[in-house]
Structures are given as C-alpha cells and as structure tokens.
Design goal:
Among the domains are: 106 residues, Serine Threonine Protein Phosphatase 5, Tetratricopeptide repeat (Alpha Horseshoe); 70 residues. The radius of gyration is 21 Å and the shape is globular. 40% of the residues are buried. The chain is mainly α. The protein contains 20 helices and no strands.
C-alpha cells in the first residue's frame, strides 16, 4: 500500500531537532534531580521524564530510578490520584500486571471520592492492561470494529490501527497510521518517530521487511537515539544483506542500551558473516545480561528471554520462562510463544490447548494466520 509522503521526511514534516529535544529532556531531568524529591509533584515529574527518556533511548536504569522515585513518593502521598496513575503506568511497563490493576482500582476509588483524575489517561492504561493480559472482552467497540469512523486525533488513530493489525487487516492499519501522521500537530520528534516504527512493525509482522525498512529509517533519521527504530532498521538491513551498516547500528544501540536482545541479534549477524569467535563472545555476553535482567526483573523480561533461549536451542529454560510468562499474562503473543516452545519439544497437547485459547479471541493477527495451517491436526472445538 503506497501513500503520498508516507513516511514523511524531516523536510516534509518538520519537528524539533533530535539533539535539542534530547538536550532539553536531559536538562529537565538534571534540574529535577537537584530539587526536593520528597515533594510528590517533583518525584512524579522526574519519574515521568525518566520514563520518557527510557522510551526513546532504551536505558533500563531510567526505569529502575523512576520506579524507586514513585514508590518513595507514594509513602508520603498515597492519596494522590495522579501519582497512583503514574505508578500504574510504571507497573504496566515492568509487566507487574496484577499490581497495575490494583493501582488502577485505587485511582478509581480516589476518583469516586472526588479526586481529580486524568480520565483519558486512566482509560488508556485500562485498555493497555486489557491488551497485555489478553482480556480482549474488556475492550470497546473501537477495538472490535476498527473500520468504524475514527476520531481525527493522532493517538486515537494509532490505537485503531493497532486494533486493525490484530484483526488481520494490514491495509486498514496502514491507512490509519497514515491518517494519524496527517493529524500530528506537535513539534516533538518522538511521537512521529514512534508512529513510523509502529507502521514498520506492522509490515514486519507480515513478513514485509523491505517495505518496513523505510519507516524504520525515517524514524531513525528523525530521532537517531531512538533505540527501537535503530534495532529494527538493523534487523531489516541484515535481512537485506547489508551487513556492514547493520553491524554499525547494532553496535551503536548495544553501547547505548546494553540490551541482551540486541547483543544476540549482533551475534547472529557475526555468525552469518563467518565470524564464529566473535559470535560466541557475544552470545556469552547476552547470556550474562539475560541472567542479570531475569534475576532482578523476571516479569519484565521473561517473554523476550524465553524467545532468546528458544532461538538458541535451550528448550528447558525457554519452557520454564514461557510458562511463567503465561501465568502473568494471557495475551495471544504469550500463548503463541508457548506454542512455539511446545512444538520444538514435540508437545502437541500443549500446542492444541493453547491454540484453542487463541482461536477463542476471534483475533487474526499475522502470527495467528501463520499458525492456522500448522494446527490442522488439532481437534476441532
């Protein structure tokens, strides 16, 4: 699906330069770090800024710091609805879903008692929780019928596009993402870069890496420090056998994030480039980082770590993590991961049991379509 000025270049749709944008964000964080964190408003503002930087740069210590600030602030201001809402968002980010649900319930209780609450933010987090935990029945008509008339608002259109993707309609998803770009009215580069990455991921999930690459590149050019854009661009370049550029991007994003998922991807590149010793060293590094992350933050990293151990042939570790992850969240991605692991172990009973649950959602994400042919031997229900 080709649409004009999609993705828009930095000349076609101007935003603040990345260096100024990130410089201002760093300056705000530095200023807030020097203020009195015992004041709940200061702690919340600092945590929010740290989490925004994390979403761009992908540095996990920003998440850790934000969580510590919010937890401390809640000790002194437990009745602050805005603080509880920020805390719920942090809990969702680190995949502590039961705790996030409890925090959102506290916000609703405070609202019932007259507290002023950002209703749109509350609704957004409730929807995010439902998506993450596979409670699709809790989502509204906009999710169930993404083709219905969408509001002319950037984030609402992007949310509708994601719903279309889960329902298997890539063309509709792409048109909605494109429409969201048309309605972008801010000057910050991050939301637009994020939007382009979402379109790229949608194409990537359908196996269209060559079509996805311009979107990841557009996001990377608009915001070079955006870790998710850099990593996905490297992934598509690797598939296109542009190994030198992919290697440079992987090395850059690894130095920035120390993310074991990216380290493992670089190991695969080096293996494909016939550099086995370098690949082996990188795999050891990835093993060490995954072990450290899982020890400290098991819920946040179990799903991606399970995929890593599956890809490297360590099925017992992959199975244990996939089962843990499925206890915490029952979305289709978690069920399909369990099916992938069970398939490698020859466990057809688990494959079919999870497939029944996936089918019951009525969703038709690209990964579901791929599995449909593979599960023909499962009994009909």
């Amino acid at each position: 699906l080709r649409l004009p000025n999609w993705p828009a270049t930095t000349e076609q749709l101007r935003t603040t330069s990345a260096s100024i944008y990130l410089g201002n964000l760093d300056a705000r964080i530095t200023q807030l770090e020097g203020a009195d964190h015992r004041a709940a408003a200061v702690a919340q503002a600092l945590a929010s800024s740290l989490l925004h930087r994390y979403r761009i740069l992908g540095r996990w210590p920003d998440v850790e710091r934000a969580g510590a600030l919010l937890q401390a602030a809640l000790q002194t201001a437990p009745e602050s609805a805005s603080l509880q809402l920020e805390w719920a968002g942090w809990l969702l980010l680190v995949h502590r879903f039961a705790d996030a649900e409890a925090a959102l319930a506290r916000v609703q209780g405070l609202r019932s008692n007259g507290a002023v609450v950002d209703g749109a933010r509350l609704e957004n987090l409730q929807e995010e929780l439902a998506l993450a935990t596979g409670q699709y029945e809790r989502l509204g008509e906009d999710f169930r019928e993404p083709a219905r008339q969408a509001p002319a608002e950037f984030y609402a259109l992007a949310e509708r596009a994601y719903a279309a993707l889960l329902h298997g309609d890539l063309d509709l998803a792409s048109r909605l993402y494109f429409e969201a770009q048309h309605h972008y009215r801010d000057v910050g580069p991050y939301p637009l870069a994020w939007l382009h990455v979402q379109q790229g991921i949608a194409l990537l999930r359908h196996g269209h890496c060559a079509a996805a690459e311009p979107f990841f590149r557009a996001a990377h050019e608009r915001l070079p420090g955006y870790a998710l854009a850099t990593e996905h661009l490297a992934e598509c370049l690797l598939e296109a056998r542009q190994g030198d550029e992919a290697r440079a991007l992987y090395e850059s994003v690894i130095a920035q994030t120390d993310n074991p998922e990216y380290i493992a991807a670089l190991a695969r590149l080096e293996e494909a480039d016939e550099r086995p010793e370098r690949a082996a060293l990188l795999r050891l590094q990835a093993d060490e980082r995954w072990a450290a992350w899982l020890a400290a933050w098991p819920q946040a990293h179990a799903q991606h770590a399970a995929r890593y151990y599956l890809d490297t042939g360590r099925l017992d570790q992959a199975r244990a993590l996939a089962e843990q992850n499925l206890q915490w969240r029952q979305d289709i991605d978690s069920r399909l991961l369990m099916m992938d692991v069970a398939t490698e172990q020859g466990d057809s009973a688990t494959v079919c049991a999870q497939w029944q649950r996936v089918q019951s959602t009525g969703l038709n994400a690209p990964e579901v379509v791929t599995w449909r042919e593979r599960t023909r031997s499962c009994p009909a229900h």
